[in-house]
Automatic annotation (TrEMBL), chain A:
Cellular localisation: Cell envelope
Family (UniProt): Belongs to the bacterial solute-binding protein 1 family.
Cellular-component GO terms for this entry: cell envelope
Chief localisation class: other
Organism of this sequence: Kribbella rubisoli
Domain of life: Bacteria
Signal peptide as annotated in the record: 1-23
Protein name: Carbohydrate ABC transporter substrate-binding protein (CUT1 family)
Pfam family, one: SBP_bac_1
Keywords of this entry: Signal, Transport
Lineage: Bacteria, Bacillati, Actinomycetota, Actinomycetes, Propionibacteriales
From TrEMBL, chain B:
Annotated TM spans: 20-41, 85-104, 116-136, 148-165, 202-224, 244-269
Compartmental location: Cell membrane
PROSITE patterns, per database record: ABC_TM1 (PS50928)
Similarity comment text for this entry: Belongs to the binding-protein-dependent transport system permease family.
Protein name listed in UniProt: Multiple sugar transport system permease protein
Organism of provenance: Kribbella rubisoli
Keywords from the named record: Cell membrane, Membrane, Sugar transport, Transmembrane, Transmembrane helix, Transport
Amino acid sequence: MPASEISRRSVLRALGIGGGALAAGLPLAACGSNGSGGGGGGGNASWMTWDTESGTPMYTMAQNWAKQAGKTLDIQSIPGDDYDTKLRTVLSSGAAPTAIRINDDYVRGYYAEGSLLDLRPYLEKDGIKPEDYFPVAYNFAKQPDGAHAAWPIMTNPGILYCNTDAFAEAGVELPPKDWAKSGWTWDDFLEAAKKLTKPNGERWGALVFPDSSLETVFPTSNGGDGIYSKDATRFTLAEPQGTEAIQWVADLSLKHKVHPDFATVTAGKQTPNWALAQLGTGKVAMLLGLTSGVPYLRSNAKVKWDIFPTPMKVSRTTVNTLTVLAIPKASKDPDTAWSFLKYAVGAESAKLLAQSRGFMPVAKSSSALFVPDDKAPSNLALVTQALGSAVNENFSRYIERARTIYRPVLDDVWSGKKTAEAALGGVKQKVEDVLAGKG
Amino acid sequence: MTTEAIRVFNRPPRHIPRRVVLIVVLLFFAVVFAMPLLWMISASLKPENEVLQSPPTFIPSEFQWGNYSQAGHGLLPFFLNSCKLAALNVGFLLLFASLAGYGFARLNFAFKNLAFALLLSTAMIPGIVYLVPQYMLFRQMGWIDTHYPLWVPNVLTPVFGTFLLRQAFRGIPIELEEAAKLDGASIFGTFWRIMLPQVKPALAAVGALTFMGSWNDLFGPLIFLNSTRLQTMPIALALFKGEYFTQTNLMMAAATLTILPPLLLFLLAQKYFVQGITMSGLKG
């Protein structure tokens, strides 16, 4: 057809004919069935995960395991926020994959529901030595009944990212590089933030993201238990050490003006990489974050930066999150699944997983892999030190519901409408009822 | 443009100041509505460390066209899967919805109104409620990790399409149908040769809405597909989102590529789309 004859009508007609042909011909031709028939997939083993990119260390690790084990591994990659919906759907439908990746927040809940296999028989059979692993990782999977419900493979502790260019420009001394060194208190942090802040939002002294890292790091370094008590029955964030810590963080913005207002920070949460980009582009001088931010900053930071200990009040503690694998109780081949889990914490995997410098593998021997190179951070030894003082959130099986109650009232603290004591105290009983399974 | 806007626009020259104000207001809203799209295109051409630069810039310091080839690499299978599912959904849904819509609008049969009410009531049940039973059923049928769950249930229960086309058929003068009957046309012949061509705008509207629904469906593929080779464009986009950080520029490049087919479809079919919504009585 000559170009002059192409009209909207002719294009629509062609699309209609094409669409009709497709509609008529394709349904029977192929709907892509591979005969897998369920969450178990078509290979010898299946692994459900939210790791999305082939070629990444986790993917490569899984493929390497399959190769050396002589298995076909069906990697079911479920991106996005609906991973747990899919996981719950396949587990409820009796179509459990061989092994799964699981959000560390929800291990206790899934185990309590009876969805996860107790790994103790495998640990005993293979003579796994707890002392070979970072305690904060190994002990995480222990349940109140003694079961070992999951298998962490990488750690991700909280540290303080500093824009060292900003420190040099403002003539402020950098925090100590050593975790154990005394000093670098909350007051020191505030003083540094004041000196590093430039007027009119040109540069903020500090940025602390309102999430469970904040809710854990500051209350625990103030001598508290974190968000919940160790037995996960009390809402300790609403107790004096917790409320004092939360108020102190809120005042960084409300009173001292060294921190962006929390409405901006919360809005930034919707944008990928927002907090890391604030540090990497020089808009923020100090950022509390997890080591998982290291790969982004290594590739994209426009300023010089390094990692330092979090500030302390009573003790220097930090939060830790984990990359966790587990075996569904309904897994059709738990032995194969255990072989995969064990491989994931072995020396070969550790070497691969440590490459990004964002995650420390759980075996203590992995510290030797965290050596500085020509790119920041130079203070990589800090990650091992941080793990020595890191705590996991004290998880409850009702953590999701508890969050829906206390997180909204925290917004009133960040905006200055209420004090931390009033806001959190107002929901303490309600949260504790939920933790007790009554909510 | 609304009727009032057109009326103001066509007024004599003494109304020029009012027209200018109207144009400025419309341009303002056009820019506001277009801003996310423009930001997406701008971000798709920037280096990653410039995407969230402060103060923000609109024009990239250096146009990175390579982002498109990098983001587009490997997208073709996802694109073809999305095209296939959109074609199946649109084609079969139009067929079944028009048949059902015509039946509810023009044919008389026992319990017609009850059946129609039942049909509409099925749309009131949130999908999440029957997700697990549906998954178990599809699993027993061997449909998990196939494309069937993503189009067969949709086209067999076209509630919205049936409703919209029923409204459209009801708007056509009965004399047209009677004339066809007098000429000896069968019920199906009347439907196919006389009535269906009269509701082309409504068909276009239903088709466009179905296309968008299928094209943008993230949840269905996420739940019912396991193999990457069967996944669709929304999943491909979600794959760009990392757990701890995201290559925003590449994700925006992929998003720009993703919206091209619906954008093109809307540009081509916008006249029918608007007409279809209007004639089926859904316009506010």
